[in-house]
Every structure is written in structure tokens, then in C-alpha cells.
Design goal:
With 485 residues, the chain is an alpha+beta fold. It is built from 17 helices and 17 strands. It is elongated. The N terminus is likely disordered. The protein binds adenosine-5'-diphosphate. The site of adenosine-5'-diphosphate has 22 residues, from helix 14 and helix 17.
Length: 485
């Protein structure tokens, strides 16, 4: 160690102790020619040389060969002399030849009389930071390559809704190319029609949402797509949003197929209706003609034809209704009427076919609704016949009509003490062809269409339908309709 180090020198205990304790900081001094004159423990730790080994060598030893060739060490000394300090960040070389990233601060060293005697360099090992940065960059590239190569249309937006990157599938779906899109505002890139678009509102309102449906027609308006859009805001740190991920699913084809299926069901059930009625009518004629003269076998056969044609007739009517409801072609003939009066009619009809059950009107309000009387009658029939059908061992069905003045709604409920519906089965209950497992095993006949049609009818009236059942002691089905003043 050289003898002429100025105050504060690396030999000063206080400073020395501090410097020695900083493992990632290497501190060393050189003379004016760049020959190392002192070397702290941190420098030993970071660069691998001991003080004895390195003192007397040129500081160039810790620079990469390329930096040496380019005169970087000399440049640092010159900069320190000219500006009072030099700062840099670059690779340095350890004793074992390995490279590491470090930031360096170099400044001139003067003796107590102010005479320039060399330089001090403080070197900070930044390899961890550099590695983390490299990993982050790698992760970003990786994420970006996933996005770009994804078969799904994906878009990454910056928080100001400018487009950061997009997948190939996205460009294909929107018939756009990278140039037309990158760094542009989403709505600008996709055309003016998106201005004040509900999607914009949706994105402002929610941090994430799924399957938001919208119709997109290209700028040339040649084709129209039905898209399901999902979005997620990616938060970098608490509350500061980083980016928005948007995914698009083109369901145009599926929707067309669905429509085609509906059309087919509609047409097929319509076409079936007449031949079924004709079969039924001829069977009735035969039945009347042969009832007293034909053999038991013939009569039984005729009875079966009548039962089955009746079933088929019901099914085709249900399918026709379902398809009309689905395509929105059902016409509601709304009129104001007293719900209780209609209920009494349906209760009487149901009593004709069910003698075992007592249909009890519990609390029945005298409310008026503005609705399609025929369709609401259909709903009531469905609920009452189900209540009877699915409670074969019970004796009563309870009916209520209650008014909720605050919500301006009237609720009609039908409660049975039958086989009930487990909570798991309740999720799909109002979908088409939904039948619960306990029904299938109990062998009770049905099509699984009635509740779907009923709930669609109620929805079309601005109301809703639901069920309450624990799965043990029967079920309570209800529907709400808006009240008429
Ligand atoms: P269907 O009775 O012709 O099968 P619905 O659409 O009216 O058709 O009913 C759908 C299914 O819901 C039934 O098959 C049955 O599994 C269940 N369900 C309906 N009403 C009741 C009820 N009151 N109790 C128990 N299960 C019921």
C-alpha cells in the first residue's frame, strides 16, 4: 500500500471500516499513470484479486480487452480530470476472466496540498440488476412472441388505449396490418364506428370482463363479424395499471349455425304439425267406428296410436314455441287483466286431470298485470302440472300471488312437496331439454322444454322466473311480472 494517501485515506479507520463492509462495492486508488495503489476488501470480493496481487499493476487489468483496445481506461481518467468525475456503466473483467456488469465512479485524487496524485474508483457490482433486467427483457420478448404467434386474436393495449402489440390472428380477423395498427389508438385503428362504442364504456367500467358481445363490420362494410371480447387490465404495481389485454373470439359461424338449427327446428316442427294432427284425427275416427266391434288387441293398438300422436303433437308445439322465442318471432298480445282470474281458470283445468292433489290458494292478491293472457296461462299450466307430476306421493300444492309495491312487481309462486331439485341441478333448469337426474331415475315422462319456454315468456314480459328447493322437501317455482297501476 502506498505511503502517500491523502485524508480521508483507505487507511483511515472510520472510512476503511465502512468501505470494507460494502461487499458489492469495490474501491481502489491508482497513481496518475493508472497503476493500482490501494485495493479494499470489496474490490477483492467483486474482482477476485487480493490487494497484494494487484497493487503495482495497471488498472486496465479489470477492463475487457475490447474496452482496452478502444482506450476506455484512459478516456475515464481524462474525463475525471476534465469534469472532476467520470461515470460509466460497463462490463468489467474478474481475475478468473469472467465478465460482470458494474457501474463505476472515478474522480481525481489530490494530496493535502492539492497536488494531483492519482485517481479513486468506486465500482459497484450490478450483475444482479443486469441479470434481472435481462430476465425481464427475455420474459417480455417471450410474452410478446406468445402474443404474436397465438392462433387467437389478441391485442395488448397501453393504458391510453394505444396499441402495443397484436397477434397475427388479430390482424387477420380485422384485415389490418402491423403498420396500420401499431401505436395507434384502438378505436382509431379499427375505424370511426368504434367511437363512443359500448366496448369503450365496458373497458372504463371494469378491470376485467368476459365475452362481451359486439358486432363489428369492416371499414369496407363487406362483412360483419359477431365477436366476443374479453379484457383484463394487467397491474404492474399496486394501483398503477400497466397494460390491457384484449382477446377476441369470432362466433359469427357458430351463430349462423345456431340460426340455421333454429330455422330447421322451426320449419320441421311446423311441417310435422299437420301430418301429426291428421294421424290423430284418423285414429280418432277409427277408434269411434271400431270401439264396440273390434278385438281388444285392435282397440289397444288404436289407444297407443292416440297417446303417441298426442305426445308428438305436444312436442312439436313446444318446439315451435321454443324456436319462435329463440328467434324473437313470438308476438306477445299484451292486455291488462287480473292475474287471479286467470289463475282460477288454470287451477280448475288442472283439477280436472289431477284428483289426488288439493290445489290450495293461500294468499292471493288481486293484482293486475299487462301481459299476454294466453302465454301467462301457458306458464301457470306448466308450473301446476309439474307440481302435481313431480310430487306423486304428496296431497297438496300451495299457490300464492303476492305484490311487492316497492319493486312494482307481482310474484306468483307454486309450492309442492315432491321430489325436489338438488342445488346442482338448478343451474341448467331453465335451459332447453334440461331434466334433472332424480326425474330420469324416477321414470317420470317429460320433454324438458316447459320451464325453458315459461322462463323465456316471463323474460319477454320484463319479469323473471326462479326456483327455491333444497332438494329434500319439494320445490317452489315462482315468476315475477311488472304490476299495472
Ligand atoms: P318436463 O316436465 O316436460 O320434463 P319442464 O321444462 O317443465 O319439462 O321441467 C324440466 C325439468 O325440471 C323436469 O324434467 C324436472 O326434472 C324438473 N322439474 C320441473 N318442475 C319440477 C318440480 N316441481 N319438482 C321437481 N322437479 C321439477
Amino acid at each position: 500500500m502506498s505511503e502517500f494517501l491523502p485524508y480521508p485515506s483507505l487507511h483511515d479507520d472510520f472510512y476503511k471500516n465502512i468501505l470494507e463492509s460494502l461487499e458489492d462495492y469495490g474501491v481502489f486508488t491508482t497513481d496518475r499513470e493508472g497503476i493500482v495503489t490501494s485495493w479494499n476488501k470489496g474490490a477483492e470480493h467483486v474482482l477476485g484479486y487480493t490487494e497484494e496481487e494487484i497493487c503495482g499493476n495497471s488498472a486496465e487489468i479489470i477492463f475487457t480487452e475490447e474496452d482496452c483496445r478502444n482506450g476506455i481506461p484512459q478516456h475515464e481518467f481524462t474525463e475525471a480530470m476534465e469534469k472532476g468525475r467520470g461515470v460509466d456503466e460497463r462490463y468489467h473483467r474478474r481475475k478468473d476472466g469472467s465478465l460482470f456488469w458494474a457501474s463505476g465512479l472515478i474522480f481525481p485524487l489530490n494530496d493535502s496540498e492539492g497536488k494531483h496524485i492519482g485517481f479513486t474508483k468506486i465500482l459497484r457490482n450490478l450483475s444482479n440488476r443486469k441479470e434481472a433486467e435481462a430476465e425481464l427483457l427475455e420474459a417480455r420478448r417471450y410474452a410478446q412472441s406468445i402474443v404474436e404467434t397465438s392462433k387467437e386474436p389478441i391485442l395488448i393495449l397501453n393504458i391510453d388505449l394505444s396499441i402495443n402489440s397484436a397477434s397475427k390472428a388479430f390482424y387477420k380477423l380485422f384485415s389490418l396490418n402491423k403498420k396500420e395498427v401499431e401505436n395507434k389508438n384502438l378505436f382509431e385503428a379499427l375505424g370511426q364506428q368504434w367511437d363512443h362504442h359500448p366496448l369503450q364504456e365496458q373497458m372504463q367500467k371494469y378491470d376485467s370482463f368476459e365475452n362481451f358481445e359486439l358486432v363489428y363490420s369492416s371499414q369496407s362494410k363487406t362483412d360483419e363479424h359477431i365477436l366476443l371480447v374479453s379484457s383484463r387490465k394487467v397491474f404492474r404495481t399496486f394501483k398503477s395499471i400497466g397494460q390491457i389485454l384484449l382477446t377476441f373470439e369470432d362466433v359469427t359461424f357458430e351463430r349462423k349455425m345456431e340460426q340455421a338449427k333454429e330455422d330447421f327446428i322451426g320449419v320441421a316442427s311446423h311441417e310435422l304439425k299437420t301430418p301429426i294432427s291428421v294421424i290423430k284425427a284418423y285414429a280418432q275416427i277409427l277408434d269411434m267406428e271400431l270401439k264396440d266391434t273390434a278385438s281388444e288387441k285392435v282397440n289397444k293398438t288404436l289407444e297407443r296410436i292416440l297417446i303417441q300422436s298426442d305426445r308428438l303433437g305436444k312436442l312439436t308445439s313446444l318446439l315451435l314455441d321454443a324456436s319462435a322465442l329463440k328467434t324473437g318471432t313470438i308476438q306477445l298480445r299484451k292486455e291488462p287483466f287480473v292475474l287471479l282470474e286467470l289463475l282460477l281458470e288454470i287451477v280448475n283445468e288442472t283439477r280436472q286431470s289431477s284428483h289426488q292433489h288439493e290445489l290450495i290458494l293461500e294468499e292471493v292478491a288481486d293484482a293486475r298485470v299487462l301481459a299476454d293472457r294466453f302465454r301467462i296461462g301457458q306458464v301457470l299450466t306448466n308450473l301446476l302440472t309439474n307440481a302435481v307430476k313431480y310430487s306423486p306421493d304428496a296431497e297438496s300444492v300451495l299457490i300464492n300471488i303476492r305484490v311487492n309495491e316497492e319493486k312494482r312487481m307481482v310474484r306468483t309462486s307454486v309450492q309442492d312437496h315432491g321430489i325436489g331439485i338438488s342445488p346442482e341441478s338448478q343451474t341448467d333448469l331453465f335451459k332447453r331439454f334440461s331434466r334433472t337426474e332424480n326425474i330420469t331415475t324416477a321414470g317420470i315422462e317429460g320433454f324438458g322444454m316447459g320451464l325453458y319456454i315459461s322462463s323465456e315468456i316471463i323474460k319477454a314480459h320484463g319479469g323473471q322466473m326462479g326456483v327455491i328447493s333444497t332438494g329434500n322437501d319439494g320445490s317452489t317455482f315462482y315468476f315475477d311480472l311488472p304490476l299495472v297501476s
